[in-house]
Amino acid sequence: MYTDFSSLLAGATLISGLIWAVDSAVFKPRRIRATPQGEEIHEPKLVEYARSFFPILLIVCVLRSFIAEPFRIPSGSMKPTLLEGDFILVNKFTYGVRLPVFGTKIIKVGEPKRGDILVFRFPNDTSIDFIKRVIGVPGDKISYKDKVVYLNGKPLEQEFLSSVYDTDVVGHSYALKHNKEILPDHPHSVYVDTSRPALSMDEITVPKGMYFVMGDNRDNSEDSRSWGFVPEDLILGKAFFIWMSWDSASKDIRWHRIGHVIND
Fold it and tell me: What integer pLDDT is reported at residue 1 of this predicted model?
């Protein structure tokens, strides 16, 4: 069970619904009987608010829990695919239907695949949401040497696309390589900083019910290389759409990113 905005929303929906239901079944009939014929029946303010807000809260709760939920990208760990300030929608039923608040899966639909971009609760602190790309699924053997991912003993080739300069949130600029990594069935863009020391990770096997994830901004991402696997029950959904993007540096909307379908 996790306490966050979704929990508060579910709680508010439940409380407002109970207030309205109890009043309709118990107290409203009493008010009707106690009010002389022809006089206006006064409804308590609390009941009035509950009756007004319950349908709205219920619709929002259902949409966020079972259809799609909005998230904001807080860092540059998924550049160049996702930028700081991107506001995305996450498909909540791609991997199955879960109960709100408790996170228990009640309907199994599918499982994450290599290349999927996941939003999940950070295993070391479930109050924080992370977003990364799936590199390894259960049974895969993963290692990382000289800035190259090895999947089941074979290196994932990277095709050079261009040299770019990236600026972080504090204004520091870095020279990076923009490459295309050839993940089986899902090639995608990555940033590689050749000026930083190469991180190495010995071969590990992804356990059952776990996933190995990495950021596309390979030298500026805390991911499975440092803190381990993502348990299946912490996965919130699959990122699929950018509905808004705000550039905090220029204080302006990135109009060209709005409406972009996330499939890279």
Answer: 43
pLDDT value of position 250? 85
Query: Which amino acid would we find at residue 232?
Result: E
Q: Mean pLDDT of all residues in the chain?
A: 90
| Distance from C-alpha of 184 to C-alpha of 114, rounded to nearest angstrom | 8
Range with top average pLDDT, 6-15, 100-109, 217-226: 217-226
In one letter, which amino acid is 45?
Answer: K
Per-residue CA distances from 188 to 81, 118, 222, 229, 262 (Å):
8, 15, 19, 21, 11
Q: Report, as an integer, the average pLDDT of 36-62.
A: 88
Whether the per-residue pLDDT at 6 is higher than 80: the answer is no
Is the distance from CB of 103 to CB of 1 less than 8 angstroms? Answer: yes
Q: Give the CA distances from residue 145 to residues 115, 141, 181, 196, 202, in Å, rounded to whole numbers and listed in that order.
A: 20, 13, 15, 13, 8
| 77 catalytic per annotation | yes
**Active-site annotation holder among 65, 75, 77, 221:** 77
Residue 143 annotated as catalytic: no
Residue 11 has pLDDT above 90, yes or no: no
- Which H or E run contains 59? helix 45-62
| Cα–Cα distance measured from residue 78 to residue 128, given in angstroms and rounded to the nearest whole number | 16
Q: Which of 79, 92, 132, 238 is catalytic?
A: 132
